[in-house]
Design goal:
With 434 residues, the protein is α+β, with helices and mostly antiparallel strands. The protein has 4 domains: 129 residues, conserved putative lor/sdh protein from methanococcus maripaludis s2 fold; 103 residues, Elongation Factor Tu (Ef-tu), domain 3 (Beta Barrel), CATH 2.40.30; 62 residues, RNA polymerase II/Efflux pump adaptor protein, barrel-sandwich hybrid domain (OB fold (Dihydrolipoamide Acetyltransferase, E2P), Beta Barrel); 76 residues, Orthogonal Bundle (Helix Hairpins), CATH 1.10.287.470. Helix content is 29%, strand content 36%. The protein is built from 7 helices and 23 strands. The protein has a 6-stranded antiparallel β-barrel. A 4-stranded antiparallel β-sheet has the order 3-10-8-5, with no helix packed on it. Strands 7-6-4-9 form a 4-stranded antiparallel β-sheet, with no helix packed on it.
């Protein structure tokens, strides 16, 4: 065997050994990759509170918009925004000159009508006496009677005009309709008011700031769960890290449709219902128009078996495999899809499988495997969902990471519990949301 041949054989042997080693390493890595790290949380008995979340604005329970009933120019303004007033306090004066002149004219017209009425009355009595003596005809009497009635009507018209002119002059001075605070001041001295016969032209608003409420916009799918008297937790942006108590006092019967610009400039329409929530707590410094978020407590459970919401998934019936969905639905959380399936509102045009081909369940950690278990659910709280059947207290539920639960995990997959991070913090992803 030549030296060249031996060299070729040696190189070939090295390549074979290297290939075997590389293959073994790749096989070992592949086997390691098959084991998915997950976080686990036990199914436990908890007190659950179902809530409906909404956003809104702070508004006084009682407020009055003050407008001028007649047009005019403001010549006196005795208050500024934030002033406290009592009922009957003088607030605004409009230029009275035009209305003083109108009153003088109406008074003059009234005097003329009174004199004319007096004259026609005397004429009618005199001609009636002449007719009785045969010294005047019936036609003369009829003419005098018509003149008397006409003068009487003119007098009534003049009296009405005089009353109207007097009232208009009185309307140039505006007083506080209630005790409260000037919460809005829209006009200044020298500005014109249009008068409110045809359209609202608010000069100022007097509000009772001791009693406030939230005007919240609740989605049409949630408002059916809200009832009068429900308790609410209110957070006001201006008072961070503080929660206030409220109670639902009014629910609108008609919807308010809101249109806003969405992605790519498309218009998105939302159908909401206004819900009024009275603030039980007295909050110093609160002002109308402040932004607030509310959580209306709609249902309660005590000692309910529950699991983390993100652990509940919707999968193909009998397989525990991921549902094939469009991008729009894929971006929704498993909680959103699960709630839509339970409520019967899932858009099947975006989901390839029909609703009767889907099932709700969780993955249970058992002997290093993810076992798919079908469940039925009850109410959903902020972090946990009630389980009415399919699980037992203490079952180890795979609760994260969300990416694994939503897109990767299948029935029978090998799993292991995620180790704690080196910095000592727990690496659990039990509260991850999509």
């Amino acid at each position: 065997m030549t030296k060249k041949t031996r060299r070729i054989l040696w190189i070939g042997g090295v390549l074979v050994v290297a290939g075997v080693v590389i293959g073994a390493i790749q096989k070992n890595n592949a086997e390691k990759k098959k084991v998915t790290e997950v976080t686990v949380e036990a199914a436990s008995l908890r007190r659950l509170v179902a809530t409906v979340a909404a956003e809104g604005k702070i508004d006084p329970v009682t407020q009055v918009k003050v407008s001028a009933e007649i047009p005019g120019r403001i010549v006196k303004l005795t208050v500024k925004e934030g002033d406290v007033v009592q009922q009957g306090d003088f607030l605004v004066e409009l230029d009275p000159e035009v209305y003083i002149s109108a009153l003088d004219a109406s008074k003059s017209a009234l005097k003329s009508a009174q004199a004319n009425k007096q004259k026609s009355d005397a004429d009618y009595r005199r001609i009636s006496e002449l007719v009785a003596r045969g010294m005047a005809s019936q036609a003369d009497k009829d003419g005098a009677e018509a003149a008397y009635k006409l003068a009487e009507a003119e007098l009534e018209r003049a009296e009405a005009n005089e009353r109207q002119s007097r009232e208009n002059l009185g309307k140039t001075r505006l007083s506080a309709p209630m005790s409260g605070t000037i919460s809005v001041l829209n006009k200044e001295v020298g500005e014109l008011t249009l008068g409110s016969q045809f359209q609202e032209d608010v000069i100022l608003i007097v509000a009772d700031l001791s009693k406030m409420q939230v005007l919240a916009s609740v989605d049409e799918n949630d408002v059916i769960n809200v009832a009068l008297g429900d308790t609410a937790r209110v957070e006001i942006d201006a008072f961070p890290d503080t929660t206030f108590k409220g109670v639902v006092t009014e629910i609108a019967q008609s919807a308010s449709n809101i249109t806003a610009s969405g992605d790519f400039g498309a218009d998105v329409s939302a159908t909401n219902f206004e819900v009024k929530i009275f603030l039980i707590d007295s909050i110093p410094g609160i002002r109308p128009g402040m932004s607030a978020t509310v959580d209306v407590e709609t249902d309660y459970r005590t000692g309910a078996l529950s699991v983390p919401i993100q652990a509940v998934a919707v999968r193909k019936k009998g397989e525990g495999e991921i549902v094939s969905v469009s991008r729009e639905v894929e971006e929704q959380s498993s909680r959103q899809i699960q709630e839509q399936v339970r409520a019967g509102t899932l858009d099947t045009s975006k989901v390839q499988n029909q609703k009767d081909e889907l099932e709700t369940g969780v993955f249970v950690f058992a002997n290093g495997e993810a076992m798919w278990k079908i469940i039925t659910t009850g109410i959903a709280a902020d972090r946990y969902m009630e389980i009415t059947s399919g699980l037992a207290d203490g079952d180890s539920i795979i609760a994260g990471p969300y990416r694994v639960l939503a897109r990767e995990l299948k029935n029978g997959d090998k799993v292991k519990i995620e180790e704690k991070k080196k910095n000592g913090k727990d690496g659990k992803g039990g509260n991850e949301r999509g």
